Amino acid sequence: MPVKNRFAELHAEITGWRRDIHQHPEILYETHRTSALVAEKLRAFGCDEVVTGVGRTGVVGAIRGRSDSNNRAIGLRADMDALPMSEDTGLPHASKVEGAMHACGHDGHTAMLLGAAKYLAETRNFDGTAVVIFQPAEEGGNGAEAMCKDGLMDRFSIDEVYAIHNSPGVELGKFALRAGPILASVDEFAIRLQGRGGHAAKPQETADTTVMMCHLITALQTIVSRNVDPVLQAVLSITSAETSSKAFNVIPDRAEVKGTIRTHAPSVRAKIPERLRSVTVGIAQTFGCTAELELMKNGVPVTINDDVATDHARAAALAVAGGCEDVALSMGGEDFSFMLEERPGAMIRLGNGPTAALHHPSYDFSDEAIPTGCSWFVTLIEQRLPLP
Questions:
Q1: What is the CATH number of domain 5-183+302-384?
Q2: Threshold 0.90, pTM exceeds
């Protein structure tokens, strides 16, 4: 059961959808045009149910098979949002929106799932219900969490849920997968330091937040190296450090440090903030300053592929592409993790070929991967919901 011939026929049409979405990128929950386009096409395909406004701007379509004797439903998810960055590809279908770009391939994910929905609505060669999920705000807005909180899983009686993400550097049209953790949790923090500013010529009269900030940054690097089990993986990176003064002769009274924490183990994710707070308070006291630690509320959990669901995803990849590589752990994050906390499922990687990296201004989704991705979605449904 290789790539389905129908997707060779539909390839140009699906590519057109993808490039249209690429030209009109929308950020976070502002996917109004994309959501409307998706809903319009799902209705035109003849989906049995199309619901908009799930998780603010998410769209869900239900397609019932020829039989529903087992009363099961499998969810397939694609993300729709773009990134707040400018495109530098020079392509005819480049973004028409200044400061917004599909630099992560969500345009391709959406187009592939639309293609799969069209095929599934045409053929209905399965027993049960295929639920196609089009999600906003993956890039930092936790759209998957919003859809889950809006009752996605129970409302559509979803039993399992699956997703594709493209991978530059993986051979075009090849799949890669692993069971268990595949992507990291992502949490952000900000530390605000309050000292006593003054003249740079009289440091003895100040509580110097600049010196404190430097010591704090160094001390925070010991959390992973000395408090996390070496066989587990974690990253704590400082990504911003600034003070309240830009003058050469002023010791600032305030400073702020920002950063990100990424892990593959929920236990480590819980432990690091405790040490972060402890180290920060201790350094602040040492330098006669105070510190306020803010842990941001928009973190995502570890993306963990269910073992059995991973086998199902691999079986579909083998059927479509004849193979499926093992993928290494990544410190990247994905809010699909919220859906995987509610239902068993898996995310598979689809090769995008030797393209620019994700989140790079020269990146573009490879349209040649479309038939393979569409076929995987469809094959997974037909294998998991076989006709009696």
A1: 3.40.630.10
A2: yes
